[in-house]
Specification:
5 helices, Myb/SANT-like domain-containing protein, single chain, mainly alpha, 44% helix
């Protein structure tokens, strides 16, 4: 049972430079990724050391924070984008304008999708500069093709 008098763990904050440095580091070391796009602890530890110079807020990141950022945020955004692209409704995605929402129908399709995939909201009208790097690391990570399951 944890000691109730201990100080709370400081919240980890990520700025865009840290996130970009992490993705570029993992991209440079993508040969170490498994088929699911995840890395071993040693790679996450090396990434934590690599991004230390980019930290502007909060405590330095350890391998757990790096792994959580990769698996719980970056991979999720990538998979959500790929799933959005595979929607039968003709949902649009490009890396310059993101979902490029134009018109009432496109707005409704996007808003319905965002209800269950909130991380993609930030790409309503702008692309994701890290998308090409993540796509290289997880080349088959998204839902694609005619036989893709779509509830």
């Amino acid at each position: 049972m944890p000691n109730k008098t201990s100080a709370p763990t400081p919240r980890v904050h990520w700025n865009h430079e840290e996130t970009a440095a992490l993705v570029r580091f993992l991209h440079d070391n993508r040969h170490e990724a498994g088929d699911n796009g995840n890395f071993k602890m040693a790679t996450y530890q090396a990434a934590a050391l690599h991004i230390a110079n980019y930290c502007t807020d909060g405590p330095p990141k350890n391998y757990q924070a790096v792994r959580n950022k990769w698996t719980g945020y970056i991979q999720k955004i990538y998979c959500d984008i790929e799933y959005y692209r595979a929607q039968p409704s003709g949902a649009h995605w490009d890396n310059e304008k993101g979902a490029n929402i134009q018109g009432q129908h496109a707005e409704q399709v996007f808003e319905d999708f965002v209800k269950s995939h909130p991380l993609i909201r930030q790409f309503k009208t702008s692309g994701w500069d890290l998308y090409p790097y993540v796509a290289d690391i997880i080349p088959h990570g998204g839902a694609r093709g005619a036989n893709t399951f779509s509830p």
